[in-house]
Amino acid sequence: MKPNIKTSILTGLLLALIMSLGLVGNGMAAKEKTKSSKLPMAPNFQLQDINGKTVSLSDYRGKVVLVNFWATWCPPCRMEIPHFIALQNEYKDKGFVILGLAGDDEGIKVVKPFAEKNKINYPILLQDNKVADDFGGIVGIPTSFLIDAQGKIAKKYFGYTETTVIKKDMESLLPAQKKEKVNTKSAPKAKK
């Protein structure tokens, strides 16, 4: 018998709480780094958003994407949402998007009103077990994956993660940010 998403997530949350006691000393979740030369491709998926539209991860190729596994009943997930709304506002025109993959067993009947009430400004998709499995199994939420413009997983964040950490990692992947750094270094000095 396969456990349902909520049972799996609750088990993962308990595991995360136990792990966080040893791993989190400054309020920042532990993050898993991947070596840039061996970045794995993010698994493509097609899911329904809360308005019934089919959305695919490949629709966002060329953008930096934060895929966030969460649920409406999860306190750390709820804590991240205002920060994600702010990130989306600040970087939506710079090649960045957040995709929230809601894992609520009740589905759209709880997720859509929650998203509307909280004025979530990024796409909210209704996830299934297959997507969680394709990402290597989600043992606790929130769990987020930062995906570069080529569709490769650059970072994985387990548990509540400080926005400054995500922002720093995300900015290093944005094409516009890379160009600005290159132009700054290669610009000739003005003569007086």
Describe this protein with a few key phrases:
two-stranded antiparallel ribbon, 192 residues, six-stranded mixed sheet, disordered C terminus, Glutaredoxin, alpha/beta
Task: Note down, in words, how this protein is organized.
By secondary structure, the protein is of the alpha/beta class. The chain has a single domain, classed as 3-Layer(aba) Sandwich (Glutaredoxin), CATH 3.40.30.10. The protein has helices spanning 5-23, 75-91, 108-117, 129-134, 163-173, 175-186, and strands at 31-33, 46-48, 54-56, 64-70, 96-102, 124-126, 143-147, 153-158. Strands 1-8-7-4-5-6 form a six-stranded mixed sheet. A two-stranded antiparallel ribbon has the order 2-3. The longest helix is centred in the first third of the chain and has 19 residues, at 5-23. The radius of gyration is 18 Å and the shape is globular. The N and C termini lie far apart (76 Å). The model is unreliable at 13-37 and 178-192 (pLDDT under 50).
Which SSEs are present, and which pair or pack?
Layout: H1 5-23, E1 31-33, E2 46-48, E3 54-56, E4 64-70, H2 75-91, E5 96-102, H3 108-117, E6 124-126, H4 129-134, E7 143-147, E8 153-158, H5 163-173, H6 175-186
Parallel strand pairs: 4-5, 5-6
Antiparallel strand pairs: 1-8, 2-3, 4-7, 7-8
At a glance:
The chain is 39% helix and 19% strand. By secondary structure, it is of the alpha/beta class.
Give the overall shape.
globular
The secondary-structure element order is HEEEEHEHEHEEHH
Number of separate helices: 6
Strand order of the largest sheet: 1-8-7-4-5-6
Distance between the termini: 76 Å
